[in-house]
Recover the amino acids of this structure.
């Protein structure tokens, strides 16, 4: 693998409203440090893609944003959301995760009915009204473009869905919580091309209402879907810019090599 | 040798071994049923045992076995559930947890006679509980706990960690994720564990001789006052179980039909265990379907 100067970076600052601003974030698993001093802001109601090779730390960074690294890794630095540092010990992580939802690489529907997949967490968060719950089920499934396929079998097991349907159910489950920010960790990498394009269509519609941060190793996907792109390499943020700039006029050698497939 | 031949030989050997195991099992169960079933009658199942005369039944022993199983599960299941959840979900991976796990393994390999004597000294004598169903249930809990704990632990661990992440990412606490998502998905495995431990409870004799006792005093099946000496529900009365009865009839039975009673009892024991298996699977499936709405 080529060696790049990891301390050089090109991070453009945009004068836009940011949903999340991370300042000097370091993440380590025990002795092993996997994120080095990353400062990165995510513009509101935009799609930001994080790209990079396996092990570049993009997923680790993503999971720090909704505190999924608690008890797994040590996260230092400030992550500001609505003027609050959410990386603080005193933060109520359960409340936080209602605002910052997450969809994972592999579809992980609960072993429950399709309806209950969506209502289970809502009920636990105190929503008891049946009308409200039904409304949320319908709205979120429509937003996730799954409603037409499942509306007649809402009480059947979610485990009977195909991989692509299950992943859209997971998206619906996340947006039923009415989050501000949606984190997606390679949401289509375990799916076939048709399901992938359905997921992408879904996400394209969602970006009007949510701030979306997506980790992907699929560069076509990043360039198709995102407004901004951040390139990670070996735990360092190398470049952050508008997606169109990253893919046409990258400033850093590492970025250029990575997107042109000339890497390692 | 070419791979095809090797494969054929290996498959043949494996088939042979499977057939051997099935044949031994079939022969055993077949023998017990063939020699025992002819002695089973309504009278046999519903009349009390006789000490000297022919024509005794196993009514009380049969009930005692089932009651003992219920009591044992009532005591051991909650403890095992708590311990299993701790080991699978909360315990840090360190030397202390390893010691706990090893201790549990050791507990499961203790000889039942030793556990029986220990419980006899501690509960029957020291704590003055006497020969009683309760003493027996506590002794059986010692056997049951390791089995059930391990089983619940592995059942929980076999549920994908993706499910835990999903629960946490929706803002659920770890406890709500475990009780609401992980536990329901683990139900089939846990049911299997209960069935296995139930088989052991039904079949155990050695530990019960010293704890639940070898006598089946008169009990009144219409007396629902559990504090009454004659109530069938009184947990402090001595209670000979079916397995102990078989051992006793065989070793010191002086009734003329001791042989028939022991064969009949053995057949009943096997049939009860089979029925319990079917029943537990049925309950487990219903429970699983209800909690996961799977078809």
């Amino acid at each position: 693998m080529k060696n790049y100067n990891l301390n050089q970076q090109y991070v453009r600052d945009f004068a836009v409203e940011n949903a999340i601003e991370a300042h000097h974030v370091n993440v380590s698993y025990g002795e092993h440090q996997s994120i080095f001093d990353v400062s990165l802001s995510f513009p509101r109601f935009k799609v930001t893609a994080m790209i990079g090779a396996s092990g570049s730390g993009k997923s680790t960074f993503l999971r720090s944003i909704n505190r999924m690294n608690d008890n797994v890794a040590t996260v230092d630095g400030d992550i500001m959301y609505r003027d609050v540092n959410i990386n603080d010990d005193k933060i109520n992580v359960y409340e936080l995760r209602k605002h910052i939802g997450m969809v994972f690489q592999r579809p992980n529907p609960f072993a429950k009915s399709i309806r209950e997949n969506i209502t289970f967490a809502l009920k636990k968060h105190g929503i008891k009204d049946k009308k409200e719950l039904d409304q949320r089920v319908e709205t979120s499934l429509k937003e996730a473009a799954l409603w037409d396929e499942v509306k007649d079998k809402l009480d059947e097991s979610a485990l009977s869905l195909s991989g692509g349907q299950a992943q859209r159910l997971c998206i619906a489950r996340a947006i039923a919580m009415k989050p501000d920010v949606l984190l997606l960790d390679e949401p289509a990498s375990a799916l076939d091309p048709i399901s992938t394009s359905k997921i992408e269509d879904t996400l394209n519609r969602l970006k009007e209402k949510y701030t979306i941060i997506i980790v992907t190793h699929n560069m076509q996907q990043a360039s198709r879907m995102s407004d901004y792109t951040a390139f990670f390499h070996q735990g360092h943020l190398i470049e952050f810019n508008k997606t169109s700039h990253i893919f046409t006029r990258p400033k850093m050698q590492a970025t250029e090599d990575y997107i042109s497939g000339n890497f390692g | 040798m070419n791979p095809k031949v090797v494969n054929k030989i290996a498959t043949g050997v494996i088939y042979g071994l499977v057939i051997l195991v099935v044949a031994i099992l079939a022969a055993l169960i077949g023998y017990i049923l063939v020699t025992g079933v002819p002695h089973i009658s309504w009278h046999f199942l519903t009349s009390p045992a006789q000490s000297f005369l022919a024509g005794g039944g196993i009514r009380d022993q049969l009930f005692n076995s089932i009651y003992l199983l219920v009591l044992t599960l009532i005591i051991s299941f909650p403890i095992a559930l708590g311990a299993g959840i701790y080991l699978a979900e909360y315990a840090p991976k360190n030397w202390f947890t390893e010691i706990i796990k090893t201790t549990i393994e050791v507990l499961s390999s203790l000889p039942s006679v030793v556990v029986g004597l220990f419980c006899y000294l501690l509960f029957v004598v020291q704590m003055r509980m006497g020969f009683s169903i309760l003493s027996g249930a506590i002794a059986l809990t010692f056997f049951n706990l390791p089995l059930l704990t391990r089983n619940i632990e592995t059942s929980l661990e076999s549920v994908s960690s993706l499910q835990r992440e999903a629960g946490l990412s929706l803002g659920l606490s770890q406890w709500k994720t475990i009780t609401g998502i992980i536990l329901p998905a683990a139900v089939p495995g846990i049911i299997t564990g209960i069935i296995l431990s139930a088989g052991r409870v039904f079949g155990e004799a050695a530990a019960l001789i010293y704890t639940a006792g070898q006598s089946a005093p008169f009990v009144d099946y219409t007396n629902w006052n559990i504090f009454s000496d004659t109530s069938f529900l009184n947990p402090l009365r001595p209670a000979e179980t079916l397995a102990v009865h078989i051992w006793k009839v065989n070793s010191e039975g002086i009734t003329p039909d001791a042989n028939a009673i022991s064969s009949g009892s053995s057949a009943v024991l096997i049939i009860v265990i089979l029925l319990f298996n079917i029943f537990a699977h049925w309950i487990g499936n219903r429970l699983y379907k209800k909690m996961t709405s799977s078809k």
